[in-house]
């Protein structure tokens, strides 16, 4: 990002990050339809996915209004390629086993929770109201995913192993979520979004607390981190997610309605 | 309907004179439209038949998530995606709710699900057909949920209280699914491109006959219907329900501007009903026996989900026990 970035540009970029992360995680959860480990989990997963895609729609709609180049919320979701997507690398990671699914959810939920808690106070009323509705939903997501991390960590030997492996494997995607770039710094100065240092501290605090209670070992402080989502450099997974998710819009570009 | 060919274990219906005093009292209650509740005495045959029927229904709701799950990752717009996700979540809820109604009869959910995975019990034949294009998400809502409603509206008056109450709640949501499904098709037919309209017709061509099969075999081929009717577990015959469905559906089909793959489908002024062609019952029995296009995949998916999730459920149990232990030690 160049120094000349305006607040407006930063906001558009940030809204896409929020929307894309919600959308891609919702999409990943949709993949689990009919494949959850219990019927109650089937309901819960779809419930969380519904919240996320609903939030994505709200952010996309606002982003589309601000960008104002004729693209709709649907265009933003279904007609942008991977290099234009701004979701966190974390959420595009495959579902794996249920420990991975829940570990990914927990790391994201913790970030989402603190982020929304601060967006609720944004001077931009639209942001504040979308965030307020989302914050209630995400509070439940976070409670649920931290419960599962604890259940697995402090459950059976097998579940402990699986959860520790999931934490270790996913850890490299946590760094970029809590490191602010120009966009987030610019917005923070404008009173929109979390104080980057505070967000990182809150996230680390909560994650450590839950992992410890789950009898899991947190990865080392200086662990290597994978970065790139904020500039559109994703893992190989995203291209496949979009190929599936955007199939109809791409295969029938002339269609005006669905 | 979601329960086809439910075995009652009765060769013929007993007369009041042949019944034991308990049976007679039970039958008189049924005849007087008094609901049977879980705590009431009931004949073993009644209990078993209900367990079979309700579990078939519950299994159908759950397996029925799969053909829709096949498109939930490819839904074309945010609105359609959210609608489809909500519908699938409703179906999971129906499954849970029905399994609970079934458990009031002393059956065990996990055991019944094991039977499903072992291929010992059935679920609706309709979910063994593949969903091949997006319009199928409209057609399934319109025809499949639509056929289910025709059956379930009648089942709201079924004699077993918990089942009847489950039906009342579920029917409301199914009607919503049906309208939503029809709207998908209507939008595509009204504002869609030529390709999209073809998608709709192709979808109706594939789902028409299998939807009619949802009501089960013809009355003369339904040996268990009589006993189920006497117990008021069933309230209308298969053929009556099928005719009701066709009569209400054909005008909707015409309003769409689509056709049914049945040259014999036409209004019969004399009967006051639509006539329709012969159903391919061989196909129906084949699908029921496991030889439908997707039987193998559907059961495999469900079995893998539950078997593969064993360690998850085990972990949850172990954790809950540890937590309980901690609380006891603290007390
Ligand atoms: Fe249902
Ligand atoms: Fe149903
Ligand atoms: Fe339904």
Spatial strand order of the main sheet of chain B = 1-2
CATH topology of chain A: Ferritin
- Globally, the shape of chain B reads globular
Oligomer: heterodimer
Order of helices and strands of chain B: HHHHHHHHHHEEHHH
Provide a compact summary of the structure:
The complex is a heterodimer of chains A (258) and B (331). Chain A has helices at residues 7-30, 39-67, 73-78, 89-92, 98-119, 125-153, 157-170, 182-189, 196-213, 237-245, 247-251.
Describe this structure in words.
The complex is a heterodimer of chains A (258) and B (331). Chain A is mostly helical and 258 residues long. Chain A has helices spanning 7-30, 39-67, 73-78, 89-92, 98-119, 125-153, 157-170, 182-189, 196-213, 237-245, 247-251. Chain B is mainly alpha-helical. Chain B has one domain (21-292): Ferritin, core subunit, four-helix bundle (Ferritin, Up-down Bundle), CATH 1.20.1260. Chain B is built from 13 helices and two strands. The model of chain B has no long low-confidence stretch (mean pLDDT 94). Chains A and B meet through α2, α3, α6, α7 and α11 of A and α3, α4, α7, α12 and α13 of B. Bound molecules: fe (ii) ion (3 copies). Residues 91, 145, 174, 177 of chain B line the site of one fe (ii) ion.
